[in-house]
Design brief:
Phosphorylase Kinase, domain 1, 2 domains, six-stranded antiparallel sheet, 9 helices, non-specific serine/threonine protein kinase, ATP binding, protein serine/threonine kinase activity, autophagy, serine/threonine-protein kinase
């Protein structure tokens, strides 16, 4: 069988049980497609990973070894209500197939982009607590995601969330793999070129805070948490500079973010974030006007009409990206005043995402 990177065949029967329906997503290591489980008569999502041995040498960088680490991670995790659970797995000479729960409402990124994400205070609270529950459970099993972002948070028909895509996850408690993840959701220490490494668990907690800001304001606070980003430099001097970036953010929301996005990774806390969420009265100063959840007519609340950026996952050697010397910031002596840095109005944060469904395969 040829290397499956760009081809999809609908109506094919896999393992005598799963009938392929349509592609859902496509990445460097393979493809995810929807299928029907003919035994349970339920839809499933199947992740097809290409084995390195099945690809030409030119494509070997976009394939996996014969043993799927992601499959092993799912076995280690078991099942949880807020994780996209593994139902089945099988393989051929050229591919490994992971049969996963199908989440009928797609991913959080699309929900935010279309204005269908959680808006009302109680729904935002419940959504974020479910995300924390998923991460807490995952960490208790010794698995660290390293790529938490709206594109990897999926929504079920009943509005619950499930964290998925463990392709970049690790079981190492301390990692020296820099710039692994999605840059807009990565923690500052993941860009540190000094080689000291970082805690993947603490990096996951940082990403939770960025996801909350995406849910509330449809955008990220920084392009990357490095010295090359003036907004992040503001934040490193004074965390309250977030109020300049998000003027309608409530103090309650800020208290949650402090638990997630502390520059000192050791001071980030899932339990602290959970407790802060339970104390939230309103997430934004205009929450009283938002009394809908997943409303079809909800306006896009992106600052300056900017849509959130679908951020590709990366796994590459450490490069010089103007990494912020985050460790030095913990011992700074001079407190600088708040400084508002402005993103130019003509700078776009929108990417054109081509749809597999509209492209013949």
């Amino acid at each position: 069988m040829e290397c499956l990177k760009d081809k999809f065949v609908g109506g094919a029967l896999l393992k005598g049980r799963y009938q392929t329906i349509s592609p859902l997503n496509h990445g460097s290591f393979g493809m995810v497609f929807k299928a029907q489980d003919l035994v349970t008569n339920e839809p499933v999502a199947i992740k097809c990973l290409t084995k390195r041995s099945a690809c030409p040498d030119a494509d070997s960088d976009f394939a996996i070894d014969e043993k799927s680490e992601e499959q092993a991670l799912h076995s280690r995790l078991g099942t949880h209500r807020n994780i996209v659970n593994l139902i089945d797995s099988f393989e051929t000479d050229s591919h490994i197939y992971l049969v996963l729960e199908f989440c009928g409402q797609g991913d959080l990124y699309e929900a935010i982009r279309k204005g269908h994400g959680p808006l009302e205070t109680e729904h935002v609270r419940q959504f974020m607590i479910e995300l924390i529950d998923a991460v807490d459970y995952m960490h208790s099993k010794g698995v660290y995601h390293r790529d938490i972002k709206p594109e990897n948070i999926f929504l079920t028909q009943d509005g619950a969330m499930k964290l998925g895509d463990f392709g970049l996850a690790t079981t190492e408690k301390w990692s020296y793999e820099m710039t692994v993840g999605s840059d807009r959701y990565m923690a500052p220490e993941q860009f540190d070129s000094a080689g000291a490494g970082y805690s993947p668990a603490e990096a996951d907690i940082w990403a939770i805070g960025i996801c909350l800001l995406n849910i509330l304001f449809s955008r990220n606070p920084f392009t990357t948490p490095t010295e090359a980003d003036p907004l992040f430099l503001d934040y490193s001097r004074d965390k309250q500079s977030l109020f300049d970036v998000f003027p309608s953010m409530s103090q309650d929301t800020y208290e949650v973010l402090v638990q997630c996005m502390n520059l000192d990774p050791r001071r980030r806390s899932l339990e602290g974030a959970r407790e802060a969420l339970l104390r939230v009265v309103t997430f934004t100063t205009d929450d009283e006007d938002d009394d809908e959840y997943c409303g079809a007519e909800s306006p896009n609340v992106a600052t300056a009409n900017r849509e959130p950026l679908r951020t590709p996952s990366i796994q590459s050697p450490a490069v010089d990206t103007g990494a912020f010397p985050w460790a030095k910031a913990l011992h700074g002596t001079t407190h600088l005043g708040r400084q508002l840095s402005v993103i130019p109005d003509d700078e776009s944060y929108t990417e054109v995402i081509s749809s597999l469904l509209s492209t013949p395969i």
